[in-house]
Amino acid sequence: MDFREYQQRAMVTAIYPEGARIIYPALGLANEAGEVLGKIKKVIRDRGGDFGDPEVAAAIGAELGDVLWYVAALCRDLGLEMDALARQNVAKLAGRAARGALQGEGDAR
Ligand SMILES: [Mg+2]
């Protein structure tokens, strides 16, 4: 499955009020990112920071999947295609790597 297909399939379950477009997935994205961080925090608290258990990784992965869904929804609401964003992002980072600018600050590196 590529991002184009994922975005199409994920949006079958994107059911929220028309008037809440953009803000609804933006809030969901922040919430799910928090759930990722919460699971990571608990590994530090309960497992001494050992991420070696595949079940732990799978649980974090499930939350990352939720993040992905909200990214898809936010992209849809903004008229953006995830597939294009993925390609643009890889190209941007490759350009930075080629210029030796992966480190540092600023969006326009
Ligand atoms: Mg979740």
Q: Any overview of this molecule?
A:
By secondary structure, the chain is an all-alpha fold. It has a single domain, classed as Helix Hairpins (Orthogonal Bundle), CATH 1.10.287. 69% of the residues lie in helices and 0% in strands. α2 runs antiparallel to α3. The radius of gyration is 17 Å and the shape is globular. Bound molecules: magnesium ion (MG). The site of magnesium ion has 4 residues, from α2 and α3.
Query: Biggest sheet: strands, sense, closure?
Result: none
Task: List the total number of helices.
Answer: 4
Order of helices and strands: HHHH
How many β-strand runs? 0
Bound molecules: magnesium ion
Key structural traits:
109 residues, binds magnesium ion, Helix Hairpins
Question: Could you give a short description of this structure?
Answer:
The chain is mostly helical and 109 residues long.
Task: Compile the SSE list and pairings.
Elements: H1 3-10, H2 23-47, H3 54-78, H4 82-98
Magnesium ion binds next to α2 and α3.
